């Protein structure tokens, strides 16, 4: 996928692997819509991309609020009716050891809200722009850390652990990926998900008490493989571990579970 006159929205673009991916896209000639929460970091990223001859615009939003997700979608759609690439990269980890259950601005379990619901809503709202730009792609940055979704306690109100919340939210991304890919299989939009790299050297990993063993550049290689490489076009609906196709948690391939999650997500985001 060539970069000329192509528009990409990258969430979580002001830090970690998202920043590296945004910079690479900018250098490849893409116009980068860079999302983040920090104005100063956003401005610095835009300057960096523009100094290398690229084009970028910062879009501030707190993805723990569905109102702000809607504002982000509206702002991006207004400025760029055509969207060729959406990378749902923004997320939060399991938190520091001992961190208790937290909720979003809308009262949802925080990791489910930020890691999954925000990307679900943003993608749904920007589908008209992706369809108008087809061929287009959606890349969901998930994880090998996956846990079955407990549909009787999705918000983890009965028993909470940050690691469970994180892994459930990441599996939800993969169910969404497979479900949306099936919906769009004849519309020239490829949808993929991936585990970019294990324990990248990021704040999220260090906060959780893990020792980094991979670089953000390794993670960026894997994301770019699906964003602009042949694999991202030809293997829609698949989950990747790094650069290779992989098998996700079995629940991802359960059609009834995917349908149940879709209905729940449409309801929670006000789309259903």
How is this structure best described in words?
With 272 residues, this protein is an alpha/beta fold. It has a single domain, classed as NAD(P)-binding Rossmann-like Domain (Rossmann fold, 3-Layer(aba) Sandwich). Helices cover 45% and strands 14% of the residues. The chain has helices at 16-27, 39-51, 66-79, 110-133, 162-183, 203-207, 216-228, 230-234, 255-268; strands at residues 7-10, 31-36, 55-60, 85-88, 136-141, 189-195, 239-241, 244-246. It has an 8-stranded mixed beta sheet with strand order 3-2-1-4-5-6-7-8, with helices on both faces. Helix 4 (110-133) links the parallel strand 4 and strand 5. Helix 4 (110-133) packs parallel to helix 5. It is globular, with a radius of gyration of 17 Å. The two termini are 33 Å apart. 50% of the residues are buried.
Please work out how many helical segments DSSP would assign: 9
Return residue spans where pLDDT drops below 50 for at least 5 consecutive residues: none
The fraction of residues in strands falls at 5-15%
Order of helices and strands: EHEHEHEHEHEHHHEEH
**CATH architecture classification name:** 3-Layer(aba) Sandwich
- In helices, the fraction of residues equals 40-55%
Principal-axis shape equals globular
Largest sheet: 8 strands, mixed
Q: Kindly give the count of domains.
A: 1
Instruction: Please count the beta strands (DSSP E, at least 2 residues each).
Output: 8
């Amino acid at each position: 996928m060539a970069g000329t006159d192509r528009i990409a929205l990258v969430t979580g673009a002001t830090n970690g692997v998202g920043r590296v991916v945004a910079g690479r896209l900018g250098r490849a000639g893409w116009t980068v819509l860079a999302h983040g929460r920090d104005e100063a970091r956003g401005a610095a990223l835009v300057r960096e991309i523009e100094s290398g001859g690229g084009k970028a615009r910062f879009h501030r939003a707190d993805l723990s609020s569905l109102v702000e997700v809607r504002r982000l979608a509206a702002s991006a759609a207004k400025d760029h009716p055509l969207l060729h690439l959406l990378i749902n990269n923004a997320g939060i980890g399991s938190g520091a050891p001992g961190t208790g259950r937290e909720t979003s601005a809308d009262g949802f379990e925080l990791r489910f809200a930020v890691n999954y619901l925000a990307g679900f809503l943003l993608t749904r709202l920007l589908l008209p722009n992706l369809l108008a730009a087809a061929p287009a792609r959606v890349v969901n940055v998930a994880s090998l850390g996956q846990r079955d979704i407990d549909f009787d306690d999705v918000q983890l109100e009965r028993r909470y652990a940050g690691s469970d919340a994180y892994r459930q939210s990441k599996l939800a991304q993969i169910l969404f990926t497979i479900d949306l890919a099936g919906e769009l299989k004849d519309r020239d939009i490829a949808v993929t998900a991936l585990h970019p790299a294990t324990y990248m050297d990021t704040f999220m990993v260090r906060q959780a008490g893990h020792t980094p063993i991979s670089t953000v550049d390794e993670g960026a290689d894997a994301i770019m493989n699906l964003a602009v490489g042949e694999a991202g076009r030809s293997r829609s609906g698949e989950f990747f571990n790094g650069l290779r196709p992989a098998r996700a948690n079995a629940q991802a391939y359960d059609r009834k579970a995917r349908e149940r999650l879709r209905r729940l997500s449409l309801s929670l985001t006000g789309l259903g």
